[in-house]
Amino acid sequence: MGLAKRIIPCLDVDAGRVVKGVNFVDIRDAGDPVEIARRYNEAGADEITFLDITATHEGRDTTLHTVEKMASQVFIPLTVGGGVREIQDIRNLLNAGADKTAINSAAVHNPDFVREAAERFGSQCIVVAIDAKQVGNDKEPKWEIFTHGGRKPTGIDAVEWAKKMDSYGAGEILLTSMDRDGTKNGFDLALTRAISDAVSVPVIASGGVGNLQHLADGVLKGGADAVLAASIFHFGEYTVGEAKAFMQQAGIEMRI
Amino acid sequence: MQKIVVLDYGMGNLHSVASALKKVAPTDEVVLATTPEEAHGADRLIVPGVGAIRDCMEGFIRPGFVPLLNQCIEAGLPILGICVGMQIMMKRSEENNGVDCLGLFPQPVKFFGTDLQENGQRLKVPHMGWNQVQQKIDHPLWRDIENGSRFYFVHSYYVPAENNNAVAGETDYGVKFAAAVTRNNIFATQFHPEKSADAGMQLLKNFVGWNGAA
After folding, report:
1. Is a pLDDT exceeding 80 seen at residue B71?
2. Which positions fall inside the Glutamine amidotransferase domain (chain B) (predicted)?
3. Does B15 contact A201 at a Cβ distance shorter than 8 Å?
4. Domain range list for chain B
């Protein structure tokens, strides 16, 4: 008995539409994030993460409106990330109904932004998203932070960075392995373990989930507090319920 | 139709509390009040709260919500505190180097600490996610909620369950803490019912129908 590990479906949204598509059976509109989030809510997801990949200002307003609609129908925590650069961005998202906001590139450019945001809104709603790639060999792996969707190397060590973000007031770390993202080969467990052991706050593992064993491994071997996945749920390979049952069978505390 | 007032003292996202109330009480009026005047005529009151305790206390005192809350307590209005909204009802919090709170309950608010453990395993702080709540008393707000149901928590400070006769629900996270406290017409939860899916919605529904008697 105790705190359950979390399963978090992730939606990539561009100007108010889910871009990777979701093929739930009998869904009315596979691109409507509100409808999809509602389905995941009903299916027992523990949280929803909404990644806004919109680049334009008009698109941003659409996004806020989408968050508003989603928050009025989904009664589990909602994290929104992507393009969060200023205090005003966070305020807008929280006012629209987001429970947490994820900060990525802006934290790398200006770490004090995280401190300021945590002081202003509380650590509980500040998630620092880290995109990391392995550098060096497999025997003594090290990971480096990348920004701009994994295109720009920064020279920053991922473990040191995670510790710093923890001390700056991040309430949670959303950790994505750029090497694994989209591969379906499973999480980078060494990376997940290294970060999870280094910080005092919860870590969400992301990037690479291809089957249910991968989710369980993220917790059991990687030490993650939550696991995030997109395509295995979107394309109906597994339901959230199946994932939870599997993880519980593996000895992991879940909310069933 | 009743008037449900959510006190808005500038702390965090009240959208989700308001929309959850609209869902469970579609015919009632839900008002976000930034002044005591806007709370006038309330049939029941919600004290939410997100963020750090010092700002919360200041934000609560500034608009004159302390006398308002006291009047509502005396008048027997059903009152629901949520998260930091529960913590400000306690005597004093360790957060922000120590802050005096409203003292409606004699208990302190303590920090989980940086070396919280359970069975030799380090526990992450904040306590974030879905944990089980053991109902310690029979109460109208627990109606139709299975004992041991999971609710969504996110907090680094807690109200101890030990020597606490106000505990209505208890949760274990390295220490046993008060997941809910109650006294007469006040019920307050450390978890977020508005984010706790079915169990949370049931609790809000129970609150909306509660007459304030235990």
Report:
1. yes
2. 5-208
3. no
4. 3-209
